[in-house]
Design goal:
The structure is a homodimer.
Chain A: H1 5-25, H2 32-39, H3 43-47, H4 53-71, H5 80-93, H6 95-103, H7 108-126, H8 136-156, H9 163-182
Helix pairs in contact in A: 1-2, 1-4, 5-9, 6-8, 7-8, 8-9
The first copy, chain A, binds a DNA duplex through α1 and α3.
DNA sequence: TGTTTTATGATACACCGTGTATCATAACTT
DNA sequence: AAGTTATGATACACGGTGTATCATAAAACA
């Protein structure tokens, strides 16, 4: 683990630069030379930290996802609507990144990674329930995919409902059927 | 409209070559030089027919989808599990097409078109139900997105369950909660 | 504080893919 | 048979990627 301030500073600048450029011109058209210039960093320096533009984006997105994970403590299962509300508040705050992730532009592999991580998390969280009628792996994948799709719809339609309403919808449309199928009602 | 046999032959070869290379190495890594070589066609000739690799893929997929649409059976509503089974049988039969579509390689616009058409179809089919607690547009989008995601999971995991089983899962995981929320039980 | 280690900036370079231009030749049309 | 058009081959400019090198600045260490 590196604690060198120079490393931290450079990586921070690169992430910051990517976030800025994405807002200005989207993701695909950004070149690494452009990125380094925006970050005030040498071109070759980029490759000393990230093997590709996608890797940098992945880092940026993973930090955002981790931040969301911190917003969703385990005890929140009790209130799905509130959990959903927090998800959509976070999505609105980081909508430019979510748009990249969901538009699939260059971040397709990244979306799959994020999705796989989320599926693993769900399976960890509900793996001790009574064996469901539908394979848990499918249930987990469905939960994650449906949530991502709902966020994508909401952002692409310019947030036509406020986060509390979306939280309710998330709870009724996604979480309640999921909990019913995962055997939660027996616990 | 060009009827010149040379044009037809060249375009056919390019589409064929793309289909072959996609199966071998995916979409992204294919270069236009590679494509032209596989097609047995000059490099510059490619640009005389398609402005980009994406345009060629779009042409290929549109033709395949038109062919698929002609084979799709008309109305079958009564049995969700049977409807689901047919969906997965069809997905298995056209899996290479579905894989390209779902992997999103340059075909995102087309996937969105297909999705939008499916959403419209769902809304037309359930638009006369009693007003649901959740906006019908969201319900329809969720239904389509969840179905596509389930097909994608199934294909990417090499069809670990047979179509009848997937049809049951589709009915329980997707269709039953959808029908409950759309107010079907009152009809 | 002085020394060592390491990250950075600047630059040059090879490599690859794209898209355009050119022209002789082959294939098609009438 | 004569005219038209698509093709193949080739060359080229352009831009982006990833690597190598080296002097310098910054951090860590003693």
């Amino acid at each position: 683990m590196t604690t060198d301030p120079r490393v931290q500073r450079t990586q921070q600048r690169l992430r910051q630069a990517l976030a800025e450029l994405v807002l200005q011109q989207g993701y695909e058209s950004i070149s690494i030379r452009e990125l380094a210039a925006q970050a005030g960093v040498g071109y070759a320096t980029f490759f000393r930290h990230y093997p590709s533009k996608d890797a940098l984006l992945l880092d940026l997105l993973q930090r955002s996802i981790q931040e969301m994970a911190r917003l969703l403590p385990p005890g929140l299962d009790a209130d799905p609507a509130e959990e959903g509300r927090l998800i959509f508040v976070h999505a609105a705050q980081h909508q430019q990144l979510y748009r990249i992730l969901l538009s699939g532009g260059g971040a397709l592999a990244l979306l799959e990674e994020v999705q796989a991580a989320a599926v693993a998390e769900v399976m960890r969280r509900f793996g001790r329930q009574t064996a469901p009628a539908i394979p848990l792996e499918i249930l987990a994948h469905h939960l994650v995919a449906a949530t991502i799709a709902l966020i994508g719809w909401w952002l692409q339609h310019d947030q036509p409902y406020p986060p509390p309403r979306m939280g309710q919808i998330y709870a009724e449309l996604i979480m309640r059927p999921f909990l019913a199928l995962v055997g939660q009602e027996r616990g």
